[in-house]
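INFO worker-7 received task bundle
INFO bundle size: 2
INFO processing item 0
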Amino acid sequence: MAKLYSKKRNSIKEMKPSAATISFILSYSQALKIVKVGKLTFDTLSN
């Protein structure tokens, strides 16, 4: 069993996001605002 988990798989490649993807995620997270009022949660996207 231990040998199955210790082998390095050839089919898995290292995934690196592009600069455009990182830029999109950062700009989206800066525009997203989450407001909690009591038990309710409101999220707004201000662009």
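INFO item 0 finished
INFO processing item 1
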Amino acid sequence: MNYQIKLSAICAALLSVASCGSGDDSAVQLTQVHTITLKDTSCVIDYNFPATVKGLQDVAIYPQVSGRVTAVKVIEGQFVNRGDILFEIDDVPYRAAYDAALAQVEVSKAQLETAKLTCQSKKNLFDKDIISKYQLRLAENEVKTAEAVLGQSEAALKNAENNLSFTKVRTMGKGYIGSLPYRVGSLVGTTITTPLTVVSDNSSIYADFSISENTYLQLSSNTQTPKDISIPLLLRTNLGEDYPYEGKLHSLSGLISSETGSIPARAIFPNPDKKLLSGASCQVILRINEDNMIVVPRASMKEIQDKYYVFVVKDGTILQTEVTASRLNASQWAIYPDSEGNMPVKAGDVITTTTNRLMDGMKIQVID
């Protein structure tokens, strides 16, 4: 009897399980999501580009003669004007060479004068038919030779004079002195690879940066293209401080670098306070006012292998849609047209405010 009771209980349980499994799909629990409806909006977009500061003119100073440094006339960071003496190189051998060249010029002048006197004497004898024309021509050639020798002597004197003047190393422009790797007694020459110093004119500064190809295409779709040099540029220091003076685009390459895939660009900023030094790192900021932009929350974006997606809700179904986007701030991203100029999403579309556990084609339930 007990055996029959147990058998009946097991059969009842199996029937109960079967009846549960045969229920309709409406009993399945759908994933619940929050959504937002997209709309056109106006916003300010900052395009940030890492940059390196360079002086308006950075001049590397190299010696034009060889010798030991006998004097360093400047200190690091000192402001110098055009023509100021920076270094002095031992001038003893160059002064001796100058004196020798000067003496040789005097000798050449005397030889020329002698050749002219001889030639005049030969001419007088030739006029009296005492000597032949051949002898007169020889005398005339001696004059020409002496003139050429004098010219060589004067050129050698000029070269010696230049070398002597090069022992005083001067700056060709104004600016601030950089590092001074050579001290008194250092042997320097025309073959050294490290300059004596660098004179940087940073009354204005250049900020060199690069624009990626994708960013360039995004900017080109705007009426304010990156080639518009009238667009003001901003600068932010490495400390996160906003530079008080606006700059402008100085140059933009017409080619994309095959090595970096980006476009070299250069901005110029005034530097009246001399706050920015050549070699510093910063960020150049291109700030553009955009109208009719689609802006989505960061939580609505999903990144897969450098591609961005949002989940569009249509008739209770999730549609995973690839978009071209860039970060506006910590909580918002802007959507841009694709390479063909089409917007993947538009005002009025409904998207999810989360991407967790969502897949393309999934059925969902929208909640408030």
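INFO item 1 finished
INFO post-check item 1: The domain at 91-166 is CATH 1.10.287 (Helix Hairpins).
INFO post-check item 1: The longest helix spans residues 92-127.
INFO worker-7 idle
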